[in-house]
Amino acid sequence: MTATLEPSRAEPGAAGPIVEISGLDVGYRRHRKVRPAVLGLNLSVAAGEIVAIVGESGSGKTTIANAIIGLLPENGRITAGSALVDGVETVGAKEKVLRALRGSVVGLVPQDPMVGLNPTQRISSQIAEALRLRGLRSDEIHQQVLAELEHAGVPEPELRARQYPHELSGGLRQRVLIAIALAGRPKVIVADEPTSALDVTVQKRILDHLVGLVRGTGISLMIITHDLAVAADRADRVVVMQTGRVVEEGDPRTILVVPREQYTKQLIAAAPGLAHGGRLAPRYVVDRGSLPAPILTLQGVTKTFRVTSPTGGHHNFQALSEVSLNVPRGQTHALVGESGSGKTTALRIALGLEHPTAGSVVLEDTEISGLSWGKQRPLRRQVQLVHQNPFASLDPKYTIKQSIIEPLVSFKIGDRKARTARAKELLDQVALPTAYLDRLPTELSGGQRQRVAIARALALKPNLLLLDEPVSALDVSVQAQILDLLTELQRELGLTFLFVSHDLAVVAQISHTVSVISKGRIVEEGPVAEVFKNPQSAYTRELIDAIPRDTRALTADPGSRTQDAEPTADPPSER
Amino acid sequence: MTVDISGASDESAVLSALPPLQRPDEVRASRHVESGRYGNLRAGLAQLARKPIFIIALLYVLFVIVSAIFPSWFSTGQPYATFPTDVMQPPSLHHLFGTDEIGRDLWTRVLYGSALTIKATITAVAIGLVAGLSFGVVSGFYGGWVDALIMRIVDTLLAIPALLFALAIITSVGYGTIPVALAVGLGVIPGFARTTRAEVLRVKTQPFVEAARASGASWMRVLVRHILPNSWGPVAVLAVLDAGVVIIAIASLSFLGFGAPPPASEWGTLISDGRDFLVTSWWLSLLPGLFVAVLVLSLNHISKTLQELER
Amino acid sequence: MTRYVIGRILQAIAVLWAAYTVAFAVLYLLPSNPVELQLAAAGVDPGSLPPGQLHAEEAKFGLDQPLIVQYFDHLGGFLHGNLGTSITQDIPVTQVIGNRIGSTLLLSLVAGVVALIAGTTLAYLATYVGVKPLRLFLSRLPAFGASLPAFLTGLLLIQFLSFKLDWLPASGQQGWQSLVMPAITISLITGSVLAQVLMRSFEEVMRQPYIITARAKGLSRGAVQLKHGLRNAALPAMTILGVIAGLTVTSSVVVETEFTRQGVGSLTQQAVSTQDIPVVLAIVMLAATLFVVINLIVDLLYPILDPRISHYPKAA
Asked: Does A387 sit within 8 Å of B3, measured CB to CB?
């Protein structure tokens, strides 16, 4: 730890909790009614304690963060209860009182670093603002800005201070946000999903750094997250929430090993990093030598994009370099990589939506890399795509039935009766009630929409499904359901999957074989069991290590990676 | 179910004996009152019905349009009939808008004067809508040099203010409803073209368009069945708004003296004629002026309400 | 970057040239007999003159040349600052406009400043005010202002401020008092448009997550709106400046006529009445040039003002 960060000003004798919430009810006003988001919350955070609030979307966890410093959105209301921050009541408090607490007592690290910083202000001004509010003199500010950046682990602080947010990577931006929160020298930091928007390897470093900073200075930390493993890994206490209420609370070790509540058990079972004691447990074990013949082969595929900058200049961006992979028939082949690795580009080339700059793509013994879209059309019936975003992959004006049968309509298959029958059949296969046929996408949840997308993909009875991160936009409990559905469909219909994902644990649950891609190159490939147990490439090892899991349950392991002695910079793979 | 090859301890055995997950996401759908294909439309109409000012605005606009086509429904008099004994009368029950300097009933003249303006407005908006929509769709859909070319054409139309353009046409060929409607219509094309283009671009990149393509839909099908239905919202809002802009433009033209020749009683002409008597008989100018202003305000309000509904 | 600048300049020139062509076509091609039309405007009755004299009159106005020659003649003239000759008054258009441009410029400038201040303030307040009914009222005001036709507002102002209260003169352009009502009339429209765009921009910006970051530091709402909101909201609103200039030009035609001011706006009205084609052509081109130049300036300034574009990270 750097020595210039002073310890927090905990007065002796003020041993009370920094945050004390009792009976808090928070709701949102919509169409003249208040819909509750948090009900009867009791929570206290002691000085120097790290508390993790865990819940899925709709659990109310983010609402808490905003509520205690009075930053609820326009339609948010605190309808009951009290929240004492450093002994000051914030419920119903005047703006002046709240302002005195913000920054100097409570520091907020917001959720998405890509939009959390003012795009038209330099980094230094944004940090300086926080320092000025603390009362620093103008001549001290510049030096202190650099110091804060250093504490937060930002390399080359003089360079970064002068830059604008869009010139920094996501990980660096998050560190800047942490620096801003710390600059006010608060007593408690509230970190709202501090790393959800980042790649796994970056996540780990930043969380470790944050925890390290906080431990060394006696600041309390409230981590709000949907990832139980992230919480368990680092918190002193875990609070599990569901639909606005606290379900269970306690020491992470206790909760993980002997969970009392049903919901907690569900979360644990669904969190891939935890379900098996922190190990990746692949579902399938296959032998490299006895794989079925491939239905799809990419050979030496290269893709270069010409990128124009807004001011007119352009340069070449190499998305893929000599990528080769085989997708064995009847099995699932995963393509794993972080954001920007080129995995989505590879998928689009496999589908024929993009043409490779070089290399070949062979589908069912047909070379498709040179074919125009029109010529590829007959092949459409054999390959279908399931998109990542269930909220945008269905036309909002189409009923479920219309969306599902559209492929049939495009290929002029069957008459109206036949198509309706097929639609019902498909809904059945994805375990949705036939009553949903006449509904609109807005009436369905994310998981249900994804099922519809899968049903649509199956309409033409394809042999191969390409899935682009099909579960990453869904809650953990729903993820498991969809993965189970896919596995079942594969078994029933003999489908082949090419499954693109950044999440190793998800991959382990559904894939037979895997290719690991980094910066447009395949760095490793083989049966999942082999690759995950004995990774050959350094990158794969890094990915596996970065999976959040309760590493403390695995202590007494001298090679344990929880000890990050210094705040480390982001890996060179980051800009 | 899971094959654990990691040689893990008893922990995983305990956890793998857990009961299957519930389905929390089933609960959601029951909240909605309206569902199905026209659910959105029905919900929207219901919302509109609850807004009193919107209803009033809509009724007023309808009244103006109907009275333009059938003025005799709302006024018993004749626009050219004079009442020499009732010259320069302020508004009263007998003469709703008062009378002018030769005794004509102003209310009747206003109503009969609507016809030309309304006709011109509808023509102008139609021209703008059809041409602008086409430009925007072609531009957004094809991109590339087609897009660049069309946008430059649109820029040219934008560079010459619509009113000046109309004035230039009037200079050449004198007043005529069609030329004026054409000139003003050309002036509103850029708005429609840009809005449509922006919408098409926005929808074109949505995953559901790609999904339709991936499942075999032709570009034509995608355009007609997916892109257009999702794009027309903001265009409709703009159409109502531009109707107001067009009305002001046409009224301004007749105010400047370039309207239909007398004894036609276009609104702008009435207002301009009344200027000379402003001190003594304010109603001659101001009442027709208010008539127009309330019409434009109503259109603006309708447009804004529709826009909020869209969101 | 230079590619962008050159590209934009070339585009601007192309648009201007196209606008000229369209205007020329409307004024010289549309009429059934442009020669007769213009002669009549000059007060010459074509029927009453012997052919020789007729030809001389035509030559005097350059009307005997084929249209295409006239087209290039005028174009060349414009490029050299020669805006042609007024047919009705037989003096250079440059002179005709020159006599009047001062008045219009003054009015436009004053109206512009008022619109800028009023529009920005209104947009800021409408976003800042917490009391819901007041906020609703403020946010509806611009729509109201933009709906009132210029001729009506002018008349209402004259009625109340001039006739009823006798505070300000109803016509003419003597002294600053004569500027007040015309300026208000114009700025009501342009200010409303500006306010509407800014309001939407503000709303968009204040919804952004970085606003929460700023408030979490402990800044007051007003400070956040000013320091973080204004710059981010103003940038996209800059693109409307060209439209506002166009609106000012259009409104001044009506306003100057209404308030009997001797400006380019009222000149337009007169030129159209007397069918003085060269004057109309010159005015249309002036308006188009103004619009194009303003848009060009905005387009060139924008990348400099928006750090997301000026500080584009160089690719590795």
From this structure: no
Residue ranges covered by each domain of chain B: 52-77+96-310
Q: pLDDT confidence of A8, banded at 50, 70, 90?
A: very low
Q: Where does the pLDDT of residue C191 fall: very low under 50, low under 70, confident under 90, or very high at 90 and above? A: very high
> How much is the ipTM here?
0.87
* Contact assignment for B15 to A276 by CB distance below 8 Å: yes
Show the CA angle centred on residue B101, arms to residues B98 and B107, nearest 5°: 30
Please tell me which residue of chain C has the smallest CA distance to B243. C147
A111 and A256 housed in the same domain: yes
Nearest to A117 among C210, C303, C316 (CB): C210
Chain B nearest-CA residue for A461: B215
DSSP for A66-115, please give it.
HHHTT---TTEEEEEEEEEETTEE-TT--HHHHHHHBTTTEEEE-S-TTT
Neighboring chain B residues of C272 at a CB cutoff of 8 Å = 167, 170-171, 256, 258
Which of A254, A278, A302 terminates a domain? The answer is: A278
A478 and A515 belong to one structural domain: yes
Interchain proximity B159–C19, CB inside 8 Å: yes
Domain that holds residue A126: 48-59+96-278
Contact assignment for A119 to C212 by CB distance below 8 Å = no
Mean pLDDT of chain A: 83
Using CA coordinates, name the residue in chain C closest to B288: C152
**Does A296 share its domain with A272?**
no
In a domain, A71, yes or no: no
* Segment A319-347, tens digit of pLDDT: 898 889 999 999 999 999 887 788 888 98
DSSP code, position B19: P
Residue A456 to chain B, least CA–CA distance (Å): 9
Residues A265, A190 share a domain: yes
Q: What is the DSSP letter of C211?
A: H
Q: Does B17 touch chain A (CB under 8 A)?
A: no
The verdict on A297 and A409 lying in the same domain is yes
Answer whether C212 sits within 8 Å of A107, measured CB to CB.
no
CA distance A81 to chain B (A): 28
C-beta atoms of B37 and A440 within 8 A: yes
Number of domains in chain A: 2
Tell whether A515 is covered by a domain: yes
Tell me the C-alpha distance between C139 and C118, whole Å.
13
User: What are the tokens at C152?
Assistant: 């009506």
What is the spatial distance between Cα C157 and Cα C182, in angstroms, rounded to a whole number?
9
Tell me, yes or no, whether A165 and A269 share the same domain. yes
Q: Which residue of C has its CA nearest to A111?
A: C209
Contact B230 A397 (CB under 8 A): yes
Q: Rounded to an integer, what distance in angstroms lies between the CA atom of residue C111 and that of residue C118?
A: 10
Q: Which CATH architecture has domain B52-77+96-310?
A: Orthogonal Bundle (1.10)
Residue A41 lies in a domain: no
Q: What residue has token string 């940090």?
A: A127
Query: What CATH number does residue A183 fall under?
Result: 3.40.50.300
For residue B35, give how far its alpha carbon lies from the nearest alpha carbon of chain A (Å). 6
What's the one-letter identity of residue C109? L
Cα angle vertex C121, ends A99, C129, to 5°? 40
Burial B113-123 (b: 16+ CB within 10 A, else e): bbbbbbbbbeb
Predicted confidence band at A128 (pLDDT cuts at 50, 70, 90)? very high
Prediction pTM value: 0.81
**Pair C151, C181: CB distance under 8 Å:** no
Residue A367 lies in a domain: yes
From B2, B26, B207, residue closest to A387, measured CB to CB: B207
C214 interface with A at CB cutoff 8 Å: yes
Distance in angstroms between the alpha carbons of the first and the last residue of chain B? 46
Q: Are residues A366 and A294 in the same domain?
A: yes
- The reply to whether B210 touches chain A by the CB within 8 Å rule is yes
